[in-house]
Amino acid sequence: MIVESSARMPLVRPRRLRRNAVVRGLVREHRVDVDHLVAPVFVAERTADAGPVPSMPGVARFPVDGAVDEARQLFGLGVKSVLLFGIPARKDAIASSAYDPNGVVQTAIRAIKSALPEMTVVADVCNCEYTDHGHCGVLDSKGEVDNDASVELLVRTAVTYAEAGVDVVAPSDMMDGRVEAIRRALDARGATDVAILAYSAKYASAFYGPFRDAAGSTPQFGDRRSYQMDPSNAREALREIALDIAEGADLVMVKPALPYLDVVRAARDAFDVPIAVYNVSGEYAMIKAAVANGWLDGERAVDEVLTSFVRAGADVVITYFAKEYAARHA
Question: 32-328 maps to which CATH number?
Answer without folding.
Answer: 3.20.20.70
